[in-house]
Design goal:
By secondary structure, the protein is mainly beta. The chain has a single domain, classed as Nucleoside Triphosphate Pyrophosphohydrolase (Alpha-Beta Complex), CATH 3.90.79. The protein has two helices and seven strands. A four-stranded mixed beta sheet has the order 4-1-6-5, covered by helices on one side. Strands 3-2-7 form a three-stranded antiparallel beta sheet, with no helix packed on it. A hairpin with a 4-residue loop joins strand 5 and strand 6. It is globular. InterPro entries: NUDIX_hydrolase-like_dom_sf, NUDIX_hydrolase_CS, NUDIX_hydrolase_dom. This is NUDIX domain-containing protein. It comes from Streptomyces olivaceus. It holds the Pfam family NUDIX. Keywords: Hydrolase.
């Protein structure tokens, strides 16, 4: 059975909002130029709860603490990739970026996103998708 079925990596994204309803966007170092602004994200570790992946990735990339809410996206991605996204609420912490992964960060209103934001992020931010 193991040989016959596809193996997947799971990319997990957090739509992190503050108390004003703004969303956290990060300028990712490894993403293609012109599409570097996006949501906190990363790959789940084997056996890791996807909600915990959001908490871990936000902490690693920004040093912020979040509480994970509802599932907002579950898609099969490119080839053998599964994509999962959750709403998350900022709990606290001081913004400190991981310079190996993140170039910049900003809090944006859903109707005022950078022009070069990743297209997949826009409907998530605006609440236009369902799991």
């Amino acid at each position: 059975m193991w040989l016959l079925h596809a193996k997947y990596v799971v990319g997990v994204t957090g739509v992190v909002r503050d108390e004003e309803g703004r969303v956290l966007l990060l300028k990712h170092r490894m993403w293609p130029p012109g599409r570097q602004w996006g949501l906190p994200s990363g790959f789940a570790h084997k056996g890791e709860d996807f909600r915990q992946t959001v908490v871990r990735e936000v902490k690693e990339e920004t040093d912020l603490d979040v509480e994970v809410g509802r599932l907002v996206m579950l898609n099969s991605g490119l080839r053998t990739r599964l994509e999962v996204a959750y709403e998350a609420r900022l709990l606290g912490g001081e913004l400190r970026l991981d310079p190996a992964e993140i170039l910049d960060a900003r809090w944006c209103r859903p109707d005022d996103l950078p022009a070069d934001a990743q297209p997949v992020c826009v409907p998530l931010i605006r609440g236009e998708t369902t799991p």
